[in-house]
Amino acid sequence: MSRKRKRKLLIQVLGWSVTLGLISLASLVYYCDFVLLPELKVLMGQAPQSQPTTIFSDVYLLKKGDIYAYTFLTERLKDLHIDYRETPEHVEWKGRHFDYPGTSVDPEPMTRADAGQVVVVSIKDERIDGITIDSKPAEAVTIEPTPVATLSGSNKSIRNYIDWEHMPSMISMTITAVEDQRFNEHHGFDLRSLARALWIDIKTHSLSQGGSTITQQLVKNLLGTRQKTLFRKMRELILAYLLDRTTEKNVILTKYLNEVYFGQIGALEVHGVSEAAHYFFNKELEQLTLAETALIAGVIRGPAVYSPYKHPKNALARKDVVLRKMAEQDVITKGDLNEALAQKIVFAPLTL
């Protein structure tokens, strides 16, 4: 075969390859737009409408004669958001209505304070000296159980949905700073990050580098796909672009912050920044310090590697990386950085 004929044949093969590639890409875009995107939209709207199942602790029986310091009475009342009055001699609060779940021990009527009834716990010599319920003496009083976890969906996961209006800005700024710096600028995917990840994949002969934006991560989380294939990455990229084109940025970010995976606690998966704050630090989101917020953001990169319980040194080192990235992007000041780096982190004990 002559050189001229070989060149012509090569051009024809390349032409057909490009044509078939474009047809395949167009077919994938069509499939994503008209089949997968509607499914994704349904998944985007599920959490606010879902009816979660709440797991409660057991009821707590406060008994006459108990050592007061060991009862943690006022801490429990705070957790339950029950107003109380405290003096060195007594603690006083009003009972309220609570529907005890079937799985919880229903307290004896004599120890249960109904709605509006005043409970007075007298303290003498650091012990509980007396208890009255609606001015009647009692040997004990039942404190209602506290919520331990919220289960959402058919899988064993813990979630607590926080809407955008109640999401602390420091949480969103910290996570975007470390996970997707150009979140507010790109259209679902970041060409610079993709190019960098592709170059590393080519050098290492793997698909280990995702270069994924928050939008792409959200698509992967919602569709539940874990395979590292080129087709999957292309599908997520197209869906991320389509989702970004049809959905406001704050809606995407809110969903991501409520869905992102933080690891395993016992038999349950922890999803969302609110549950991460609760299980890592036993705090509400708005109570987190800058250092604690950075640690939570750092776990996202690899919950198995940066778990504060399994690998505390990794988690703390990753926290420092997050803080420095925030300073580099002027999200926090140099003073904030130094203060957060010096702060001691105390993890809450596991509750499940």
Characterize the structure shown.
This protein has 352 residues and is of the alpha+beta class. The protein has 13 helices and twelve strands. It has helices at 3-44, 46-49, 68-71, 73-79, 169-179, 191-204, 214-223, 230-246, 249-259, 273-281, 290-299, 312-328, 334-342, and strands at residues 53-56, 60-63, 84-86, 90-94, 118-124, 127-133, 136-138, 140-143, 147-151, 157-158, 261-265, 268-271. The longest helix has 42 residues, at 3-44. The radius of gyration is 27 Å and the shape is elongated.
Helix content: 40-55%
Radius of gyration, CA atoms, in whole angstroms? 27 Å
Could you give the count of β-strands?
12
Name the overall outline.
Answer: elongated
Features:
352 residues, alpha+beta, five-stranded antiparallel β-sheet, three-stranded mixed β-sheet, 13 helices, 12 strands, 47% helix, 15% strand, elongated
Can you describe this structure in just a few lines?
The protein is built from 13 helices and 12 strands. It has helices at 3-44, 46-49, 68-71, 73-79, 169-179, 191-204, 214-223, 230-246, 249-259, 273-281, 290-299, 312-328, 334-342; strands at 53-56, 60-63, 84-86, 90-94, 118-124, 127-133, 136-138, 140-143, 147-151, 157-158, 261-265, 268-271.
